[in-house]
Amino acid sequence: MAILIRREQGFYRRLMKLSMPIVLQNLITFSLGLIDTFMVSQLGNTEMAAVTAANVPVFLLISIVFGVQSGLGILVSQYWGKQDMKSISRSIGVAAFVGAAVATVLAAVLFFWPVQIMDLLSNNHQLSILGAPYLKIIGISYIFNMLSSVYASAQRSAENPSFGMKLFGASTLINTGLNYLLIFGKLGFPMLGIQGAAIATLCARICEFIICSVYALRDKRIRVQWAAFVRPGWDMLRRFLKYASPVVLNEAGWGLGTSMLTVILGYTENSVEMLAANAVMGNLGRLFLVFCFGLGAATAVLVGKAIGEGQSEEDIMSLSKALLRFTCVSGTVLAAIALVLLPTLFMPVVFPLFKLFGESAAIATALAVTSFASIPLHAYTISSITGVLRSGGDVLWSAALDLGPQWIVCLPLTALCALVLKTGIWPIALAMQTESVAKLPLCLYRVRSRKWIHDVTANKEML
Length: 463
Known about the structure:
InterPro entries: MATE_fam, MdtK-like, YsiQ. Keywords: Cell membrane, Membrane, Transmembrane, Transmembrane helix, Transport. The chain crosses the membrane at residues 21-44, 56-80, 92-113, 133-154, 166-185, 197-217, 247-267, 287-307, 328-354, 360-380. It holds the Pfam family MatE. Its main location: membrane. This protein has 463 residues and is an all-alpha fold. The protein has one domain. It contains 16 helices and no strands. The protein has helices spanning 11-41, 45-82, 85-112, 114-119, 125-157, 162-184, 194-218, 226-230, 234-266, 271-308, 313-353, 358-373, 375-391, 395-420, 425-432, 434-449. Helix 5 (125-157) packs antiparallel against helix 6 (162-184) and helix 10 packs parallel to helix 12. The radius of gyration is 21 Å and the shape is globular.
């Protein structure tokens, strides 16, 4: 295996330098979700289930934010390889305007029809009443988050990933502190419960946006040309829509599919226990995947830059294969660590901490075993789709590989086990992991085909 991942001296040091800030950024972001879940869990399983249901449309918003980030990253990483700063400014401008417009529309829908949306997500109207105030406020926060995420993505694609780490680290500290004050009513603040968690998130997102605005005015790495930012031009809009819109639709479709898994659990006979266990395990599972997401993002930057520099197809393939193999090795190590921690830490300590007992603890255990064992598969498919294929502009195939296994295999199987056959948790948990199993051979085939390598900055791409 060492021979298969061998590269020139200093390569993996550079990879770690690029990926670790992204890993820490994702760790901070996902830790915030875990902290939110922990604080809300102290209010009771019903409140936690309500927030879990409310976060279904929120996860769709997050997926769209990630889609805009990824689409922008395709352009910026290749323009960065060419050192074309004017086009980078135009790319950021297009992404900011398009992303903010989409986020504003979705936030308005969540604000005006929160109860109606919540009623679609579970068979328990009490959860809708509890979660509606949270949903009204949380949607607004993602308008600001969209703008700050766009700028953080541009910095990451220009090989400055530490900016996002520091930005979201500060945001998480603000959010956590305000959560404590507003959820539980500490230091003279009102006790707002679930609504307090949403207000805390909104305040933190506004602070993110302010930090980005100040930094953009002073930054020397990406000197934003404001005339190009404000008037990016129709050519850049067409280019962004060509390469970014499939990614945004891909992430929206994937986010909707992931949300549908939560909805399926919300319609089971033991929906409160299912949603509570899924809330905890969803956040724990993402904590173990942060390294894989970081490697995927670093892969996108390195491969995209290599294409932008005009490196040969052989060199690009060699680079991509080494990165994917390293990701697989890393995923296997993470899976082993997670499975060891399950009986030694999570079951005896973490589950009781989140008030998971009896049936909800048994559900969480099944979800943990199946999701942890699937980490190597997730690692490879994440780096293949979001790293290699997207950075080469292969956005349509990326979308097909991401959505097909989820909607054709995973969702029908999970619904069959949970709602029709009512098999119990273990078959349901296994069905939820079939997505990554189905993706693996498809990703292997497409990467090896070499048909994904495109220079998306070339004028010929727009003909």
